[in-house]
Design goal:
Layout lengths: L6 H13 L3 H5 L7 H15 L6 E8 L2 E8 L7 E5 L13 H11 L2 E5 L11 H15 L7 E6 L1 H15 L8 E4 L11 H4 L9 H12 L22 E6 L5 H13 L4 E6 L14 H21 L1
Parallel strand pairs: 3-4, 3-5, 5-6, 6-7, 7-8
Antiparallel strand pairs: 1-2, 2-4
Length: about 300
């Protein structure tokens, strides 16, 4: 990985990698832990390594039956609401592991953040995770949250679902959010892009082989070209302005670039940022690494402009 991390950031990255240590054995049917235990361990260890910032509260809630974590900063401006979709390959994500990132997001954006605790594979394979997050979005609207106050963001699998939720809202005739922000989206489950080979070994957090195992676990009998699983194959016309941020060392880099091109070709106002030397979802190190803070600040600026345009 060709990036000079501070000793603190390097240590936190190593703790993150160690927190994910139970995932590969579970994918192979080894390790002796249930998936619920794997997710619980991952969430607790990640939260311990990357804790919440001061000035933010967390509580459990639900969105039409979908459990969720509500993140509220001390200052909320104009009833702003961010629906944040966590990553984890649709398999091993845990909302508790995101108290750091969502806390920093909430404080910077001055918005309440709702993080759906959607069901995951292998117990609940495709399309259940996607259905759950779409249910959560509909619940926000049904509860009276004005669409001009809603933005959607997410990372990895959650970054792909940002696009898919907006598509589903469009197709259902529902109002769209003001903006979508996809952080390191896992947008092509065929893994056909060149970066899957060229970046394996550079990205410390994932590899082409690991992604294939995640995809097989998530998809079940579905095809990787299904547009709900891989938004690079979707009709994305009419979606809200979208920001995509990718790390240059990511194995998913090619698919993120392809997704941005797909959006732009279909006349969606699209911003693509490729960050030299950055790894998958480096944003989780917000508060501890300058590049993570700057990327998150860019995301917040993007959303804030769209809130102001919608006023």
């Amino acid at each position: 990985m060709n990036v000079n991390l501070t000793p603190q950031a390097a240590a936190l990255l190593e703790r993150w990698i160690q927190a994910a240590g139970g995932i590969a054995p579970a994918l192979a049917g080894e390790g002796g832990l249930s998936w619920a235990e794997v997710r619980d361990n991952y969430g607790k260890e990640l939260a311990a390594a990357l804790p919440a910032p001061h000035g933010v509260t967390f509580e459990r809630t639900e969105l039409d039956g979908v459990p969720a974590m509500l993140v509220v900063p001390e200052d909320v401006t104009d009833d702003r609401t961010l629906l944040y979709l966590h990553g984890g390959g649709y398999v091993h994500g845990a909302v508790e592991g995101y108290v750091g990132l969502t806390g920093h997001y909430a404080k910077r954006l001055r918005a309440r953040v709702l993080v759906p605790d959607y069901r995951q594979a292998p117990e609940h394979p495709f399309p259940t995770p996607i259905d759950d997050v779409f249910t959560a979005y509909r619940a926000l609207l049904a509860a009276g949250t004005a669409p001009e106050k809603i933005a959607i963001s997410g990372d990895s699998a959650g970054g792909a679902m940002v696009i898919t939720v907006m598509r589903k809202a469009r197709d259902a005739g529902l109002p769209l959010p003001v903006a979508g922000v996809s952080l390191s989206p896992w947008a092509d489950l065929t893994h056909s892009g060149s970066s899957v080979q060229s970046r394996t070994g550079l990205d410390p957090l994932t590899s082409g082989e690991f992604l294939e195992k995640l995809a097989r676990t998530f998809l079940g009998n579905a095809l990787p070209t299904d547009p709900d699983a891989s938004p690079v194959f979707a009709d994305v016309r009419g979606l809200a302005p979208t920001l995509i941020q990718m790390g240059e060392n990511e194995v998913m880099l090619s698919s993120g670039i392809t997704l941005a091109g797909r959006l732009a070709e279909q006349r969606v106002r699209t911003t693509l940022e490729v960050w030299p030397h950055m790894f998958h979802v480096w944003h989780l190190l917000a508060g501890h690494m300058a590049e993570a803070d700057e990327a998150l600040d860019n995301a917040v600026s993007f959303i804030t402009r769209e809130y102001e345009r919608a006023r």
